[in-house]
Design a protein that fits this description.
Blueprint (H helix, E strand, L loop, with lengths): L2 H9 L5 H15 L6 H16 L2 H13 L8 H6 L3 H16 L13 H8 L4 H10 L1 H13 L5 H11 L5 H8 L9 H8 L15 H8 L15
Amino acid sequence: MDRTLKAISLVLSYPTRELQQAMPEISAVLASDTRLTAAARRGLRPLMENLGGRDIYDLEEQYVFLFDRSRTLSLNLFEHVHGESRDRGGAMVSLLETYREGGFDPVTAELPDHLPVLLEFLSTRPFAEAQETLADAAHIFEALNARLVRRESPYGAVFAALLQLSGAKVNQDAVAELLEQPEVDPNDLDALDAVWEESEVRFGPDPNAGCPQVRDMLARMDEPVRPASGVAAV
């Protein structure tokens, strides 16, 4: 198992007291990974301290405010590729089938394209394969990092670390396109309701649904792997 990808999966999951208890081990894993630069590892420390030491209710509120109330910060990756279209539903069905064919059956209510779920799966794959998948999403990581830095959120460092692990040269045009999407005030509930009024996600059987980038991502994840059963401590 790639302990760093597993650790990042946990860090990006909804905060719990169990996560807080595991933070010393998670922090140690991330601090010792030399695939990350010293600056990247230092950049992660504020978030590690935040998750390990703040009141759990404050952490939950912070998480919801960032990731659940803003589509531009969504942790559901296909959201950034093609929103709530039917193509996204077909791509998620294919991704879920890829998980199961690899012996990985997520025990979660989250959608298959939820980043913590994908990272947990990738933690069970050879790193070269995982790195290619991360590279496909490099422009999303860069855009999320930029938006979180703008909000002075320590979560930005996680996406900077994922970008380093991907080893990818970011397509700045793709990043700029994502950053052009308007941000809605998370406190404006009427505006949030209007933004989320999109077409229903329909889960179709077509494995070729979605954009070429998504199909490339799925194509790289086709080798069997030992079973996994959801998020647990690293």
